[in-house]
Amino acid sequence: MIASIGIxxxxxxxxxxxxxxxxxxLAACSSKNANPAAGxxxxxxxxxxxxxxxxxxxxxxxxxxxxxxYSFVQLKAQVSGPLSGVFFHEGQxxxxxxxxxxxxxxxxxxxxxxxxxxLAKDRAQLRxxxxxxxxxxxxxxxxxxxxxxYEQYRVSADVLKATVQADEAAAANARLQLDYCTIVSPVxxxxxxxxxxxxxxxxxxxxxxxxxxxxxxxxxxxxxxPEQNLPLIRTYKGKGELKAEAxxxxxSTPIPGVLAFxxxxxxxxxxxxxxxxxxxxxxLSFWPGQFVxxxxxxxxEKNVVVVPAPAVQTGQSGTFVLVVKDDRTVESRPVTxxxxxxxxxxxxxxxxxxxTVVTDGHLRAVPGGRVEIKKAL
Length: 377
Hints:
alpha+beta, conserved putative lor/sdh protein from methanococcus maripaludis s2 fold, Elongation Factor Tu (Ef-tu), domain 3, 4 domains, 6-stranded antiparallel barrel, elongated
C-alpha cells in the first residue's frame, strides 16, 4: 500500500514524503500458508485389503428362542381315597408305565367282588331261562303249551341276557376303578415337585395335580420370525427337511436339530409366526424355559461373491466398496448387499470374485488416490 504524508521542515516549507508500506499482516499470512511440498505427489494411504471370494453361503434366519418340553402331563387322580404310596423322587427320570402313586385299593377290590357276584348270579339265571326257552320251543311246536306262555319264557330270557350285559359292564367298570388306584407315568420324562405325600386323602375332583411330568427327550425350541419370511420357509420346507441350530450362548458349539412345526396362523398383534425346532437332547443340554439363539438354514447358495463385512461402507448414494486396482489406486464402487452372515457380506451386484477391496483405512483412501497395502486378508 502506498500513502502520502505532508510534513513541514524547519524552514516551514511543506515536503511531501512518499512512503511505501508493506502490509505485515498479509506478508505473515502468506508466509504461513506457503506449502513447501506443493507440486509433489501425495503420499500413499496405508490400508488393509482383502480379496472378494466366490463361495457357498447358507441362507439363514436368526431369532431368539425358548426351550419347551416336547410334552408335559399333569397327573391327577381319577378315584378318591387315601394315598398309600409314592414310588419316585422329585426330579427323577421315569419311563412310560412306571408306577408313581398308589391309592388304597381295598374299597375298590370289594366293589369288584360284588359286581362279579351279581354277574355270576344273573348268568346262572340266564342259563336256566335259555334252557326253559329251548324246552318250551318244542312244546309250543307240538301245541302242548300256549303260544303266550312260550313268549313269556322267551322274553324273560331276553331280559336276563340284557341284565347280564349290564352286569358285565358294571364289573368292568369296577375293575377299571381298581386299576385307577395305581397311577403310572403315561410318558418318558422327568418329574417335577411332589404335591402330595402318603397319607393324604386324594379326591378325584381335586384340581391340583399330584405331579407334573415334562418329556424332555426329545425337546422343542420355540421361536418366532417375521411373517415376510414365511413364504421362503414354506418353499424350502416343501423341498425337504430344514436344518435348525441352537446356541446356548454366543461362543457355544451349535446343537443341531430340525424344523418340526410351523404355526397355522400369524400373530396379528406382532406380525410374527411361531416355529418349533426339535432336538434329541440326549445329553440334556436343553432345559424347559431356557433361552437360546436360533439359526434356521433354508438352503446353501452356490458360488456367491463374498467380502469381509468391514469392506462395505454406507454413503449418501448407498452402499459401496473401495476397489484397489492393479496400479494401487482406489475406485469407489457401488454395490448391493444381499445379506450379512457372521463377518462376511454377500454381494449381489457391483463386484466380481478376485477383486481387491479395502477393509480398513477408508478415511485415508481417496478415490483415484494411491494406497499402500499394510495388511492383506
